Amino acid sequence: MKNLLLVILAVFLLASCQSPSNSNISVSIASELQEDVKDGRLLLIFSTNHEAEPRFGISDNVRTNQVFGMDFENYQSGESINFDTESFGYPIESLSEIPKGEYTVQAFIQKHETFVRSDGHTVKLPMDQGEGRQWSRAPKNIYSIPKKINWDGNSSLELEIDQIIPPVSEPEDTEFIKHIKIKSELLSEFWGRDMYLGAHVLLPEGFDENPNQYYPLMVFHGHFPSDFGGFRTIPPDPELGEDDYSARFGIFGYEKMQQQEAYDFYQQWISPDFKRYIVIEIQHANPYYDDSYAVNSENLGPYGDAITYELIPHIEEQFRGIGEGWARFLYGGSTGGWEALAVQVKYPDEYNGCFAACPDPIDFRAYTSVNIYEDENAYYQDGHFRKTLRPGHRNYLGHVDAMLIDMNHRELALGGTKSRSGDQFDIWQAVFSPVGEDGYPMPIWDRYTGEIDPEVAEYWKENYDLRHIMERDWSTLGPKLEGKVHIYCGDMDNYYLNNAVYLTEDFLENTENPYYGGEVAYGDRAEHCWNGDPDLPNYITRLRYNTMYLDKIQKRLEASAPSNFNLNNWTLIKNKKS
């Protein structure tokens, strides 16, 4: 009964805040683009910036463009789509509330494909097209040329979608960097169609000249990489000046700085006394996100098994990896930080250490700023006489520029109610939730009202709350994780991720039989994504993932590698195969 009342309340609230618009908006599709359109989501985007395309300006902060979204199915060629003027919008929820004025508008269609999955569900989702599941840049998606209008709230508006996003270009192999793509039998069976995994592979100096040498594997987890990043065999571009500005870090000349760091890494990589190992960055974009979170999931399928038992052995066989758990290490930040810890916990024998920087929530009592087990609402803290919004994003001084409701309502407008936005809260929900009766992820909370579903929360706890899983299973997991867990986070993480790290540290520091024997460290006033160096700024250390944990990895290898492993240059000599 309580759940029914909540649904009724949500419908009432949504209806009450949206008075009908008197506008008539018609979106046509150019004839040459109609054949490949069947199902999808139509976005209508308003911008006050007349210089940039509206599709690139939707964000969580106050400078965001305005977007409205509606799903459509069974499009028939030759038809126009009448945009539903009562569609939900962000940041203004109702089209009728858009102030009068001059805007640049754009229509955009994200196409959905049909998947007949092995679990018996048929779902319609936007498939990655090689770009990393970025809707505004995804090949095959179509859009209109931006159009400047005067909006009075009673206008008739006609837009023609006549542009299509072209295919992405595949990177080419070089002396050191190779690119692979394999069909995953596990994922193909789950999704009911051919599904692929890819990786960018950085090979050690002397790889071709030493065919009997085998190498440890470093798995650098993170968001979808278009190519192997941070490795450059030529000096920085001399034409680059100091005038390019990084708004994220507040410094000038950052592009040149990144090129210099990449070139410095190359110089280290080829030096005679540098350790020899393989680094991979994985491509595992999927219908829900640019990344699978590298674990098995009811909604995404067995990505954890596919990566660990299909992709990684394939890479090790092709590029002479040692191929044993003691010679594999995991690291990454943010999404990659969560993955590094999760993969180590889920596959404790297959990897020999993780270095998890600024990880996504690893204890759901601090799921950003929400305790999904005790709080009833994700967006509000309730008191007897008032409600307070929960913060979603802050800077290093604690100044908040987005609330959780803002971040979730943006995804609701972009992707609707079935976790199809391709963004952060939707992918967490897709990975962590059980499958609903409709085949889509069960919501952890009502995306409009924020009301939390305790049954879904309990499922999350038992399957993906990494601190809970380690604590629950420490008697068997502990001996396998001893000395392998390293976590780093800024104490002013923009997304409050440090709170979950505090809770996890409390558990780890109290472990016995065995004591966890790893490391948890914090960066003072450091934002997302601090990764463990207390002496250098984040904008430098984020470029050094592939070298910054080597001393700690060396200690793990000293403790666990077999006697025939050469600790001087990190190679294992094997007899040449006939």
UniProtKB/TrEMBL annotation:
Q: Which residues form the signal peptide?
A: 1-23
Concerning SUPFAM superfamilies, the annotation shows:
alpha/beta-Hydrolases (SSF53474)
- Asked whether the keyword Cell inner membrane is assigned, the reply is no
**Coiled coil located at which positions?**
none
What does the UniProt keyword field contain?
Signal
Family matches, as Pfam families: Esterase
Report the protein name in the record.
Answer: Esterase
